[in-house]
Amino acid sequence: MKKINFLLLSILFSVSVFSQSEKYMKTMEARVVNVETTRTPDDLKELANAFERIADAEKNQWHPYYYAALATVNVGYASMTPQGGDAKIIDPIADKAESLIKKAETLQPANSDIFVIKKMIASLRMMADPMNRYMKYGPEAQQALEAAKKLNPDNPRIYMLEGQDKFYTPEQFGGSKEEAKKLFALAMQKFENEKPASSIDPNWGKATTEYFLKQVN
Questions:
Q1: 0.85 exceeded by the pTM?
Q2: Residue after which a domain boundary falls, among 125, 148, 171
Q3: What share of residues in the chain are helix, strand, coil (percent, to 5)?
Q4: Of 37, 60, 153, 185, whose CB is crowded by the most CB atoms within 10 A?
């Protein structure tokens, strides 16, 4: 009788865990699809907050922290003007993104895509005041990208970001639309071969790469 009760409890526990896991996955999937299509600062803030709420409920899962950091850093990029960014506005956004990605890294160390976000954060800080910050955050961004490449040289988002750097940097400072084109083309090849481990693993960036390829062709 004790064995039967134990077996029933085990089955009930397994069903409960599966149900919670299934609910978590569906909740995440419903938001992950919006990562690359959300554009405005307000909508990105809302998306980041949604991921952070999931993270608060699922403290042992790295994906919600990762996507909250990604959405937050994109708030910073979306807040830029043609004249650049205001450090007083951008720095708190970068600080928030950094705290989130650190939580993701604690749960998922040595992950290429986490270093991609670190690169984006460093670049965001630099763009807030490029003349005064390039010497600090330029190398920091490059180091993060090299770490991402070392962990997974087939990560397409690495080459997409490298292409963007070449695209936006003036030629006198090392920029090149031709080099950008090569990097975007390489990123597309990597995207075609990318096989995420799950439906909520990072696979964003293809649409952005396609957009930039049209700009350089």
A1: yes
A2: 148
A3: 80, 0, 20
A4: 185
